[in-house]
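User: For a reading group we're discussing how well predicted structures match intuition. Take YbhG-like alpha-helical hairpin domain-containing protein. Before you show the prediction, I'll give you the sequence so everyone sees exactly what went in.
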Amino acid sequence: MPAPFRLILLLSLGVFAQTTFAQPGAGPMPVVVAPVVEREVASYRSFVANVNPNRQSTIGSAVDGRVVEFLVNAGQQVTAGQSLALLRTGTIEIEIAGAEAQVALAKAELAELENGFRPEEIELAEAKVEAAIAANRYAQAKLNRTERLFKSGAGVSENEYDEAVAAALGAAASLRGAESSLEMMRQGPR
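Assistant: Thanks. Here is the predicted 3D structure of YbhG-like alpha-helical hairpin domain-containing protein, as C-alpha cells, for the group to look at:
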C-alpha cells in the first residue's frame, strides 16, 4: 500500500474513533440471556364494560304491603309464576276475613229471598194489618165525634179538632202501609 494512502487511512480511523467514542452517555446495550422454554401461552384480555340483559322485567304486587323476605337473589334466573318475595299479610288477612263475612251474609240473604217468607212472618204481618184496621176505625170514630161537637160549639176547640183529623189521617196511612207489607210477603221476593 502506498504511504500516502496509509496516512489517509490512519487519519480517517483516528477521526472516526474520536467521534464514536467521544460521545458521552450511550453505553453498551444490556442483554438478558435466559434459557428457552416451550409452553402454551394463554391469551386473554381484560375490558371495562357494562353488561345489559337481553330482557328486563318490572314486577309488582296487586296489594300494598311491606316486603318481609326476598326468595331470589339479584341476577338469579326465575320462571313464570315463581314467588319472588313475601309480603306482610296481617292487614290483608283481616280484609279477607271481612270480605268473606260479607259474602256469607249475602248468601244468607239470597237464600232467604229464594225460600220466601216463613208462615210466622206472614201471620205477624196479618196481625199488624188487623191492628191498623182497629186503630183506623177508632181514629175515624173519634174524628166523627169531635167534628160533630166542634160544629155544634159544645166545647171542642179548633186545636182538638185538628188533632183528631191528623190522628185519622195517620191511622189511614198506617193501615195502607201494613196492607202493602202483607201483600209483598204473600207475593214473595221478586
